[in-house]
């Protein structure tokens, strides 16, 4: 260390020299040596850089280097992130994961192997053939299940999610599409038509009877009353029967 030590330093240094930079740091700051070519310069930082871990002592806080395979670490023996080509497991960086574990290339960690899991089978579907449930004797029925857990890279693959089997049904004739509905519609229309026809006929009959009644009443009002014809016997002179 150069003997010229200054007390008026900048950048968080408590003491420093022109040749070696910071010699000590202000409270709560970490002292770390940075290499510049063949020279090392002391700097004071609020936290340790990548590849270093911090240790606190009563007189000074220092940043120490992690192991060569660690990118970041909590202590020298406990890594939190590994360098490329290594996988993190329990604070250590390994080239190969232990048995029962697999390498996760996304997180660069050793993780547990996950096997595929499927749900229970659904009930068998109705017996069908070419999408129909009638017009045949032998068909197929189907059941399905869902994947509830997809496997990891080394996990057991998923089983089939559908299954079919032959089935036999009592053969029945297919009703033409829309025939039943059409028949019901036609019956309803015919019933409405008959009702409307009867209503019209009844209305016509009532109108005719009313018109005839009004005509008779008018005729009675306009025609003079007929005089009662005299009795023929009344017009004859009395016969003298004295002789």
From TrEMBL:
This is R-spondin-3. Activator of the canonical Wnt signaling pathway by acting as a ligand for LGR4-6 receptors, which acts as a key regulator of angiogenesis. Upon binding to LGR4-6 (LGR4, LGR5 or LGR6), LGR4-6 associate with phosphorylated LRP6 and frizzled receptors that are activated by extracellular Wnt receptors, triggering the canonical Wnt signaling pathway to increase expression of target genes. Also regulates the canonical Wnt/beta-catenin-dependent pathway and non-canonical Wnt signaling by acting as an inhibitor of ZNRF3, an important regulator of the Wnt signaling pathway. One of its GO terms (cellular component) is extracellular region. Interacts with the extracellular domain of FZD8 and LRP6. It however does not form a ternary complex with FZD8 and LRP6. Interacts with WNT1. Binds heparin. Interacts with LGR4, LGR5 and LGR6. The gene is Rspo3. Gene3D superfamilies: Hormone Receptor, Insulin-like Growth Factor Receptor 1, Chain A, domain 2, Thrombospondin type-1 (TSP1) repeat. Residues 175-203 have a biased composition (Basic and acidic residues). The keyword Disulfide bond applies. Residues 116-170 form the Spondin-like TSP1 domain.
